[in-house]
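If your schedule permits, I should be very grateful for your opinion on a structural question. I would ask you to consider whether the tokens describe a fold that such a sequence might reasonably adopt. Thank you for your consideration; the sequence and its tokens are set out here.
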Amino acid sequence: MNRLSMNSLSMSRITADGRTLATTDLMLDEDGRELLRYTIACALPEGQSLVGEVGGTRYRFDGRIGLAPDWLRAPLPEKSQRWVTACLLAHVNGYGVEVAISLRGRHPGLATDSAERQSYQQEEISFFGNVFKPLGERDELGDIGSRMYSCGGALLQLSCAGNETAFVPERTCASRNDCSLNFLGPCRDLTNLKGSVCKDASLEGYQRCQAAVNNLAGKSTLTRYDEVVTVFLQQPDFSSFYPLCTPLFP
């Protein structure tokens, strides 16, 4: 991800007229435009779209989830940056194969109905962080690290019980060696609650998720994130990515 371009984009309204995308270097190549597609899909609600033009070609970017509708009216606050980041990280796919996912969390834009919950029952990985801030720049939480964090869901831990090597974000990172995501372990450790990454868990998702980072003085501190997105998969996809784990639901 181009953090400098993302940071620049967040420093102003995403649009000046409600129709045209704000100027950004991310428009200049296909990778940047793909990142914009996911960013706007995460940030803006369904029915809202923006257009951008480069080299005489117009591109349309559609909203879908609505985690940061305030970006239409003002620069993106850091809390909203964290929500959009969690959504972006949840969409990362190390295999390049499109997979249907259900996103859950304590945000109105992540509300689900009974049909979606019934179809997507296999809890996978939760994500949090902030990719809008450049590396080494202190944010309002005091984090100066990578700000790309993940933890394994409690149901994933149960599914992979007895096989800790399988308890990793396989869908997101096809190769663990070159994965930029910092996997912190179980979100809610059912075998050792004190070792849980997140201190608050409910049916609506996780909060008070902590990442240990080094501050500017070189000392390790815990940074707390409440903007957490959890991915749920359908059973066939879950079994494909986690073949050594037993699905909890048929």
Q: What stands out?
A: The chain has six helices and ten strands. Residues 93-250 form one domain. The first strand starts at residue 49 and ends at 54.
